[in-house]
Amino acid sequence: MSFEHKIRVYYEDTDAGGIVYYANYLKFMERARTEWLRAMGTEQDILLEHSVGFVVKRVEMDNHAPARFNELLSIQTEIVELKRASLVFKQIIISPANKPLVSALIRVACVNILNMKPQAIPEKILGEFSRVI
């Protein structure tokens, strides 16, 4: 099941030519994953209170076409792999003309933030993730 989040491209997101600087796509995707988690009923600040965090372990990103200043982009997010302590998201950034601009596979690991060691995804959250795969 795919989750959609919209993001407006601000001037600060662009380079001198008004095109989104490539690293900012990673920020857009991070925001979309956070909003996806929130839509599922999980707030990251509550997880942090329990020493649970999610960290990006790997990113494979392909840039297909540029996004430009003031465009309203759609970011589609879905889980394509779920393990006990990690998951892989597929994210696609779509233009207002419905063209794919950027696609990425992002592996995220669950860690104990006190020692930064991998840990199992809490059962309640794992159940919610399993429900949407």
Biggest β-sheet strands, sense, barrel: 6 strands, antiparallel
Mean pLDDT: 95
Along the chain, the helix and strand elements come as EHHEEEEEH
Q: What's the helix count?
A: 3
Count of distinct strands: 6
What level of helicity do the residues show? 25-40%
Number of domains: 1
CATH architectural arrangement: Roll
Tell me the name of the CATH class. Alpha Beta
- The whole-angstrom Rg is 15 Å
Walk me through the structure:
This protein has 133 residues and is of the alpha+beta class. It has a single domain (3-132), classed as Roll (Thiol Ester Dehydrase, Chain A), CATH 3.10.129. It contains three helices and six strands. The longest helix is centred in the N-terminal third of the chain and has 18 residues, at 22-39.
Main attributes of the structure:
133 residues, alpha+beta, Thiol Ester Dehydrase, Chain A, 3 helices, elongated
Write the layout of secondary structure elements.
Elements: E1 3-8, H1 22-39, H2 44-49, E2 52-63, E3 72-82, E4 86-94, E5 100-112, E6 117-118, H3 123-132
Antiparallel strand pairs: 1-3, 2-5, 3-4, 4-5, 5-6
Task: Describe, in short, the structure shown.
The protein has helices at 22-39, 44-49, 123-132, and strands at 3-8, 52-63, 72-82, 86-94, 100-112, 117-118.
